[in-house]
Amino acid sequence: MRYQPDWSVITNNLDIFFKGMYLTLEISALSLLFAIPIGILFGVGRISKNPIIRFISSLYVEVMRGVPLLVILIWIHLVLGQFLKLGAYWGSIVSLAIFSGSFIAEIVRGGIQSVPKGQMEAARSSGMSNFQAMRLIILPQAFRKTLPPMASQFIILIKDSSLVSTISAVDLTLKATNLAAISYRYIEIWTFVALLYFAMTFTLSLIIRQFEKHWLKSEY
Q1: Longest dimension (CA), the chain
Q2: Most buried one in 10, 42, 55, 214, CB count within 10 A?
Q3: How many CB atoms sit inside 10 A of residue 202's CB?
Q4: In terms of Cα–Cα distance, which of 86, 198, 211, 21 is closest to 219?
Q5: CB of 70 within 8 A of CB of 161?
Q6: The pTM is what?
Q7: Contact (CB, 8 A) for 146 and 39
Q8: Are 188 and 5 in contact (CB under 8 A)?
Q9: Which of 53-67, 69-83, 114-128 has the largest mean confidence?
């Protein structure tokens, strides 16, 4: 028997899909909010003159970038989540933040190293400490260079957040999974979900593109 599509499952449940979109964006935004300070901390640590700090920072970055996000989600949910009583929602945010923090650390490291070394030497010769020079001179310049790739990291987070449904965190993917299990309209539901994810990421890509154009103009 030929399959007959029934798109009424979409129109009748738009509120469920839009609620899922909101939760996906909320989880992604909060994860990025926590990932940025983590990334800055370990990004600066990666170029520290202290070998212990540099080793710890490098170890964190390499481990997080070498382990699949799904494994990190499950491990934090089953291990840390039990001790800290995080729950699926906060467990997913912590997992995404820790995972994304490693990529942001590399963005920050690259941004700092793109600042001419003479800037640090000039700051040090004026009497500033390493910390003052980094905070007042280097990081503000690096910040301008890292904003576009950090914005792009938000798009990656939105796509990565689809995995949080594996630990029962409520997002667009989990809501779609539950609805498909009830209605058996898998093709219609997952086609629409794919379009929703595309709409979110493509819209953000356009915003970032315009932001980068404006940013580049302000550089001159």
Answers
A1: 81
A2: 42
A3: 11
A4: 211
A5: no
A6: 0.86
A7: no
A8: yes
A9: 53-67
